[in-house]
Amino acid sequence: MSFSCGFVGLPNSGKSTIFNALTALAVPCQPYPFCTIDPNVGVVPVPDGRFFSLVGLLKPEKITQTTIEFIDIAGLIKDAHKGEGLGNRFLSHIRNVDAIAHVIRVFEAGQVPHVYAGVDPARDMDIVETEIIISDLEIVEDRIKKIERLAKISRDKGQAEMELLLRVRRYLDAGRFVVMDDFDDTETQVLRTFNLITTKPLFYIANVDEEGLAEMPQPEFEEAARKRGREVVYICGKLEQDLSALPEDERASFMELYDMKEFSIEKIIHVGYRILDLITFYTVVGKEIRAWTIPRGTTCSGAAGKIHTDMEKGFIRAEVINIDDFIMCGSEHAAREKGLLRLEGRDYLVEDGDILHVRFNV
Questions:
Q1: Does pLDDT of 35 surpass 50?
Q2: What's the DSSP call for residue 350?
Q3: pTM above 0.90, yes or no
Q4: Is 83 left (phi over 0), alpha (psi -120 to 50) or beta?
Q5: What residues have CB less than 8 Å from 301, skipping those under 6 apart?
Q6: Per-residue pLDDT tens for 260-269?
Q7: Is it true that the peptide bond before 47 is cis, omega within 30 degrees of 0?
Q8: What element of type H or E holds 282?
C-alpha cells in the first residue's frame, strides 16, 4: 500500500495541471470551476538515486520502486461545508488521504479567471482551510452531542473521549488545525478514528508562472506560510506539464534554459516524506531489488510484516546493512568481511537506507 497525498485548493489554482505534470496522466484541465468532479488518482514511483545505484551495481532482472499516490481533489470554494460547489462530497474525498498539498495560485494569467477578485494567496489559504476547519468542527460537535446523550444513561460512558474532543474543539474554535504532537500515542490512535482533515499534515504548493520562477521565494507568501508552520514548494505547473510531455532527450536543454536542476515532483515527494516522517528500506531477494516505505520508528519485525505477514509472525532475526555501505563495498561478501553487515532482532528500529534480509520460520 502506497502513502497518499491529496491536492486541494480553489478552482483554477492549477491543481490538475500540477497533477498532470507529476503523473503524466491526461486528466482534463480547463479554465472553469469544477472541471474535476471525481478525484483523479496517479501512482508515481519515488525518485531514489540510492536505489538506482544499487540496481546499477547488482543488475537484477526485476526492480520494484516504492511509490506515492497523488489524488487530485476537486476545487473547494467558500461555504463548501454547506454544500456549495458540491463541497461536502469533495471534503469527504480529502478525509481518505495521508497528507494534504494545498495548491495556492500565485500566477496572474489573465486568460485563466480567478474565482474571486484577483490573486491573493493569503486570502485563498484562509478560504480553503476555514472550510476544512468548519467541516471538522461539525463532526466534533455531533460526536460531543452523542456522548452527552449517552452520559444520561451512564455518567462514565465516553468521559475520556469527551475530554479529548473538547481539546480538539479548542483548536478548531480558534481557527487552527490540530497539533498532533500535543497528544500522546493513545490519544492519537483515538483521534485517527474520527478521520478529521485537520489532523493530517499539510504543506503548500505555490503555483507560479514562468516569470515567478525567478522571483522565489516570495516574502509575503512565505510569511503567511510561516505563521501556519507550513513548508512551501514552488512550482510552475504549466511549465512542468509542458516539460513532462517532451521526449527525455529534449527535456535537459529546456530545464537548463529555466535553470531547473530537478522536476518539482522530487521536491514534493521529499516534503511529503518529511511531513509524514517516512523512510525507505530495501530488500534484495533472488533476482529482484525492491524498495519499501514505512513510518520512521518501525521495528524490524514490523518492516518484515510490510513484506509479508508470515515474516512478521515467524520473525527470527534480520541481516542488516546500510545501502551506502553496500554500494561502497561493492558486494555483500565484501561488506560482511569489513564487519558492516550485522544481525538485528525484532525490536531494532529500521533506519532510512537499510537493506534487510529477514530470517523467519512459520
A1: no
A2: P
A3: no
A4: left
A5: 312, 315, 346, 347
A6: 777 777 788 8
A7: no
A8: strand 278-285
